[in-house]
Design a protein that fits this description.
Radius of gyration: 17 Å
Largest sheet: 5 strands, antiparallel
Order of helices and strands: EHHHEEEEEHHEEEEE
Number of strands: 11
Number of helices: 5
CATH architecture: Alpha-Beta Complex
Strand order of the largest sheet: 6-10-9-8-7
Oligomer: single chain
Structural class: alpha+beta
CATH superfamily: 4'-phosphopantetheinyl transferase domain
Shape: globular
CATH topology: Ribosomal Protein L22, Chain A
CATH class: Alpha Beta
Number of domains: 1
């Protein structure tokens, strides 16, 4: 079973509630969040950590100690146990994926107006053709984009990997010698979200957490 926990916000938290949530985190995480200039970035980063804590509590009845969080050489966060997780946020959406069974990555993107031609170099000819022939090119673009980013995050080296190296065939993704299974996570019509996971996952448990319920 893979578990998804997500939230969505449109407005800034009351300052008292924000401080209450922030004080639940280790000092180093609090300081990192405070360094963000935009309140939207502060809140998204905060919610990502709170989703992780709430997810561990719901799945394992375990009070996660964020001081135990470690980072790989490439900067990927992990815990020294068999559970893997990944966090993403965009445009008010914040999402956290957790599994006990393998390795995963998740990416969410708010669908927005962009100049799609600027991103042609990141797609192969088949992908670019599918995007341009779609009835909604922006949705198609963000679908491919979230697939590629979720795979790169699962792999562990993130944006240091060229997006073109992620090859998508028959709704599976290949990155170098590794096969990743894909799941589209449908949380809203105005965003695209994909989960890449190291095994074929048929059971994805999706949970929405309201911002005031952490």
């Amino acid at each position: 079973m893979t578990y998804i926990f997500y939230t969505y916000f449109k407005s800034k938290l009351d300052s008292v509630l924000f401080e209450d949530y922030l004080n639940r985190l280790p000092d180093n995480m609090q300081n990192k969040i405070k360094r963000f200039i935009r309140w939207q970035d502060q809140q998204a980063s905060l919610f990502g950590k709170l989703l992780l804590v709430k997810g561990f509590k719901n799945i394992n009845n375990y009070n996660l100690d964020l001081n135990e969080l470690l980072y790989s050489v490439s900067g990927r966060p992990y815990f020294n146990n068999t559970i893997d997780f990944n966090i993403s946020h965009s445009g008010g959406y914040v999402i956290c994926a957790i599994t006990k069974n393998g390795r995963l990555g998740i990416d969410v993107e708010k669908i927005r107006n962009i100049k799609i031609s600027d991103f042609k170099r990141y797609m192969d000819n088949d992908e670019w053709g599918a995007i341009n022939n779609s009835s909604n090119p922006e949705k198609a673009f963000f679908s491919y984009w979230t697939i590629k980013e979720s795979v790169m995050k699962a792999h562990g080296k993130g944006m240091s990997i060229p997006l073109k190296d992620v090859i998508i065939k028959n709704y599976k993704a290949h990155l170098y010698n590794t096969l990743w299974y894909l799941n589209e996570i449908n949380i809203s019509n105005d965003c695209k979200c994909h989960l890449a996971i190291s095994y074929e996952e048929l059971n994805v448990n999706i949970n929405k957490i309201e911002p005031e319920n952490f």
